[in-house]
Input
Amino acid sequence: MRTIGVIGTGYVGLVTAACLADLGNRVICADNNRQKIAKLKKNIVPFYEPGLDAVVRKNTKAKRLLFTASLEEATEAAEIIFICVGTPSLADGSADLSAVENVASEIAHAMKEYKIIVEKSTVPAETGLKIRRTIQMIKGQNAHFDVVSNPEFLREGQALEDAMHPDRIVIGVESKRAEEAMRALYKPLKAPVIVCNIETAEIIKHASNSFLATKISFINAVAQLCERVGADVQKVAEAMGLDKRIGRAFLNAGAGYGGSCFPKDVDAFIYLAQQKGYDFEMLKAVRKVNEEQKKLLFKKIEDAIWIIKGKTIGVLGISFKPDTDDIRNSIPIEMVRMLQQAGAKIRAYDPKAMPKAKAELKSVVFCKNAYDAAKGSHCLLLMTEWNEFLTLDWQRIKKALHQPVIIDGRNMLDAEKMNGLGFIYQCIGRGV
Ligand SMILES: NC(=O)c1ccc[n+]([C@@H]2O[C@H](COP(=O)([O-])OP(=O)(O)OC[C@H]3O[C@@H](n4cnc5c(N)ncnc54)[C@H](O)[C@@H]3O)[C@@H](O)[C@H]2O)c1
Output
């Protein structure tokens, strides 16, 4: 049985740890957030991710999954140590790598023999080099260790499925020993493995997320044109998506991308390019289109209900996407703030994200369900594609609303059906 260390028990760290434990490894997770560790020791997963609590419970019970506030303990016990700490954006768009640096130096202080140190956090190219330098500064030039880049591609909301059945595993290495150890660790997953140097692996992650963001902004730009010429972006995306060279995924026009990854990874990629003397104009346009989507949605609300000041707006969905309670960089949160700034009163409902939203948003009435959010509202705004919003009793919603206006920021609903039910229904890019 191998022993693995995982530093950082957030979405990526805890999912990685639970899956590696489920594959039969002994995994020791460390986090400097003592409250989180205390909860995890009681089998309480501190965020919502479908199915994760059961896998955590099963593996802690089998004593394959352990939690500690001591990074030293995890480092000493493990041969392979995954760094899974956050890498948020700084004001200039670059990634804040201070947690990665702290962990690297703490590992260096704690290690007494050969270790494989894996960067799983999303980091800009050449971070591996800096991790190596940091460790050598502390341990000396002859320190015995390898650095590996093994970026994570899981999606919140389906993280377990993604981690257990990845499309590919990327391993950026600088030694045969590290390559073999990583290949052996992931062998049970039977996924395609790409082995490359560390810089290539780092670029693969940023390029992948930036490309997905590009698809979203592209279809949002096409949606603008659709509205102007009387075309339907849904049909355009469907037809484009059937072309195998293009694919349907990430061609959903709407309020734009948010979340803890795409905005920061696009920013960090643009920043890296700039540092290296390349002006990544294309990605800057992707970011600009995304910024504009929020303003366009705001204008749609204004066009539909006229004066925003003093009106009540029901908001369905607060998390940045469905099946998660993550509200980091959530477009719905930004929309709520824009509407409040314009003088609107907000009644909001989200199936999972309300506890986190309550800590973030002021003066919002948090409602017990969608009908409650619609009550007395001048407009109902759909912001997150939770499945339960697809099957609402629309007659009941209509009765609850002050006036039957629905703005669908995610193109979730059937426009014809909603119009047929007597709603004034607005969505994105369906000019027909
Ligand atoms: N969330 C995703 O969907 C996703 C997907 C792929 C990649 N990533 C990348 O993975 C990384 C982690 O993301 P996340 O969403 O899991 O973040 P997170 O904020 O949920 O978790 C980070 C954890 O690291 C801990 N931590 C911070 N500094 C520490 C330190 N010095 N010692 C020990 N623990 C420390 C924090 O307490 C926290 O629990 C980021 O680089 C992110 O870009 C995230």
